[in-house]
Specification:
single chain, 7-stranded parallel β-sheet, 13 strands, 11 helices, about 325 residues, globular
């Protein structure tokens, strides 16, 4: 259903964005991939997309915070998949204003362009972090929202702006709320690549709190949710979780990864790697019934299969992964 459709992907150089671009191109969509302009002309994770696939993609470089640039990028597109965001939680403690500009103002630029240009569908990317620590499980889309970091506060604000554009202007917006996504190309800041890279290079695995629980979805399944949300009818105004409905602690993941890698290394608690106490999200586990009902979506990748693919990627690309970067 996406063949021949003009689709703009913002945040295309990122982890999930690069996989979305690759899948769209393979399905015959006419993809414009927006990456952040930089002096080195880097296209980020799009560099891992096979050359014959990437040759079919129109790559544009700019800044999501520039409303004029965003308007030109959105013009002529049937669908916009908006993934551009600052996502590293630790950095949001240090530079919260940057998150306001990118995550809130950048989203506003996309929404305003779509409203003015009559774009057929905008899929806005949220995050399970907006729920904060679960007050009931599994977490459905009506669960209370609680900002426990500057990052989650800006994503929550962006979600509400998106909802307001649907209610105020009938802008055809769908909000997707992925729970934690993992897989090849994920950055070194995330805890799964951190565990793998330390297992490859250190005598012990140094982690922050081992008890927070996360619902981890393999990136191919998350991408499938995005593509379904791009074309499924009657989704305007909906917010939809994407998650597995299973949760494990950080410590459980560490032990599981070490077992899959066939290495026996100590797991050391490092308090310097912890979030501020009131900022830590202790438990995330999704209710994905709405995604199944509206999108026909269910995750299809077994956890260990996804972990093996991630281990293989990090092992081959060890130069990309610093063993002292960590965030949940």
């Amino acid at each position: 259903m996406l063949k021949g459709k003009r689709v703009l992907v913002t945040g295309a150089g990122g982890f999930i964005g690069s996989h979305v671009v690759e899948r769209l191109a393979r399905e015959g969509a006419l993809v414009t991939a927006m990456v952040r302009y930089n002096a080195g002309s880097s296209i980020g994770n799009l560099a891992f997309v096979p050359k014959e696939v990437l040759a079919e993609v129109n790559i544009i470089a700019g800044n999501i915070e520039d409303g004029d640039f965003v308007h030109r990028a959105v013009e002529g597109q049937h669908i916009v998949l908006h993934l551009a965001a600052l996502i590293a939680i630790p950095y949001s403690y240090l530079a919260p204003r940057s998150y306001v500009r990118t995550n809130i103002e950048g989203t506003l630029n996309v929404l305003e362009a779509a409203r003015r240009l009559g774009t057929s569908r905008v899929v806005h990317t949220s995050t399970s972090e907006v729920y904060g620590t679960a007050v009931r499980v599994p977490i459905d889309e009506d669960h209370p929202l609680q900002a426990q970091s500057p990052y989650s506060a800006t994503k929550m604000s962006a979600d509400k702006i998106a909802d307001s554009y649907y209610r105020s202007f009938d802008t055809p917006i769908v909000v997707l709320r992925p729970f934690n996504t993992f897989g090849p190309r994920q950055s070194a800041r995330a805890f799964i690549p951190t565990i793998i890279s330390q297992a490859l290079s250190r005598d012990a695995i140094h982690l922050g709190s081992l008890t927070p629980e996360r619902d981890m979805t393999y990136v191919a399944d998350t991408v499938d949710g995005f593509l379904r949300a791009a074309v499924a009818p009657g989704l305007e105004g909906e917010t939809i979780n994407l998650g597995t409905g299973q949760t494990f602690s950080i410590g459980d993941f560490a032990n599981r990864i070490l077992q899959l890698m066939g290495v026996g290394k100590r797991i050391v608690h490092d308090p310097h790697r912890e979030r501020p106490a009131k900022s830590e999200v202790l438990r995330l586990i999704s209710d994905n019934a709405k995604a199944e009902r509206l999108l026909g979506w269910r995750p299809g990748t077994a956890l260990d299969d996804g972990l093996r693919a991630t281990i293989d990627f990090v092992s081959v690309n060890r130069h990309l992964y610093a063993a002292d970067v960590y965030s949940v």
